[in-house]
Amino acid sequence: MSADETWSKWGDATAKLGVLADATQLTVSQTSGGNTHVGIVAGGKAYHGLRHEDGTWSTWGNVTQFATGIGTVGGMAFAGISGDLQVILTSTTGTNKASFLLA
Q1: pLDDT by residue (tens digit) across 23-42?
Q2: What CA–CA distance (Å, rounded) separates 69 from 52?
C-alpha cells in the first residue's frame, strides 16, 4: 500500500526470482537504501532474494550454506537493523539455532 493508501497491482515474485517447490514459510524486510529482502524456507533450506531499490531483482541464494550445523531449516525471520539484514534460522532436526548478518 502506498502512503496515499492506494494499492498497486499484485506482481509475481516467482517470475522475478524463480519458483521454489514446497515452500513452507515467507519473510520480508527492508534495509536502508530501499532494498527489499525476501526469504523463503523450501525443502528444508533457507533462500534469500533481493528487490533492489531500482526495481531490479536478484535470483534466489541458498542461505543455509552459511549456517554450519543448522541441519534442516524449519523457520526463518528477517529484520533490517542499522542498514544490515539480520537473519535467524531455526532447525527441525534438533535444538540448533543460527543467526548471522548479511551485509
Answers
A1: 888 999 998 888 999 999 99
A2: 30
Residues 7-18: tens digit of each pLDDT: 777 777 777 777
Residue 41, helix vs strand vs coil = strand
Higher pLDDT, 8 or 102: 8
Cα–Cα distances in angstroms (integers) from residue 37 to residues 50, 53, 66, 93, 103, in the given order: 5, 11, 17, 26, 12
The pTM for the full model equals: 0.79
- CA–CA distance, 36 with 50 (Å, rounded to integer): 6
Amino acid at 25: Q
CA distances from 8 to 5, 39, 62, 99 (A): 10, 21, 29, 34
The grid coordinates of residue 92 equal 527441525
85 CB-near residues (< 8 Å, 6+ apart): 29, 31, 37, 78, 79, 101, 102
